[in-house]
Known about the structure:
By secondary structure, the chain is mainly beta.
Amino acid sequence: MLFSENFDHYDGQYYQDNGVNVFAVVDMQAAGPDTENSGNWAAGQNAELGANGYGTIESTSGGFWFDTMRSPGQVDMSHTFVDTSAAVGGKTSVLSFDVAKQSLDYHGQHYATDPNASLEFRIDGQTVKTINASDLATSNDMYHVEVNVAGYAGAGPGHTLELIDTTANAGFTGFSVDSIQIKDACDPHSEAHNGSFPFVENFDEQPIQVFKSSGVDTSASIDLVSQGWTGTGHNDQFGFTTTSEVVKSGMLGNVPSTSGDQWLDTQNTPGGINISHAFTDNTAAAGGKTSVLSFDIAKLDLKWDGNPYQTDPNASFQFKIDNAVVAEIHASDLATNQMTHFDVDIAGYAGAGDTHTLTLTDTTLTAGYFGFAVDTIAIHDWVI
């Protein structure tokens, strides 16, 4: 990870309604509280944050998202980062973020993102991504964006990310932005077992076979065995296989992946998955936590070749570490076709030693063709 900003835990003035956080004004020009909220943004003073759920807009990491309009005025702030590695496969890094246009009420007054609003992400003064309000179909829904950066305009390892609201008119309500990251452009599994991430899985392996729905490439089979997963073997309509099923981002039920281009379907065709992967954590617990398991998950309602399919309304899914259940998700917990992000604090492991096993099990009683959509699984080392 070259850079991360989640807009959480900053010092400032927090405003509440009936004891519940609504929004905040914070100083992001000062040093931040941790590596994922590092502060030191040039021109980051008086930054405005919305609380998770304010205007029904959900943060995608932590408890707050960033508003690109001050009250009033467009933001234009920047942050440095360092990338010393060479390009891989035609890209040197990947910029990712979540963004929404707003439509909400505060004290009886309605506020909305300007319909002609625009937002630019620049690196070394060069625009790498422009977001227009018209690009975002539904107000108050976060959209995940990933941008492959082929190279930098500036020489040397030091670079500058700039976030600038380029809307013509100064207003009170801009875009909502969260979970900004710049990652080194390497295979996701090469960084999965290093540093702050004992494990990462984004399900973006190369497709073995691609499947079409209504004549359009929609889903695929991938090989997770080569990435260290076990338990993938099952019988489908073609016989025994060890491949796993993924769906391309936005192609079925308009469900987006939250990293890369694919998400995992937890039902084989048919039958629930029960797969495992080892990871190593050799650091001690800090502050009562040894790690944090994070993932994104949705229940499904979609059509395949015109035929309707849904996640079983009584479906359930478990994440286990060393065979102890650390998170159990039910279909009733989730919105349809919308990824929900979960962070699960792990106080300690059931198994002794440094090596542990993460298991994903679809515990739905009936075998089906579509289960849950799962993406962006990570185990974060917990450091204070």
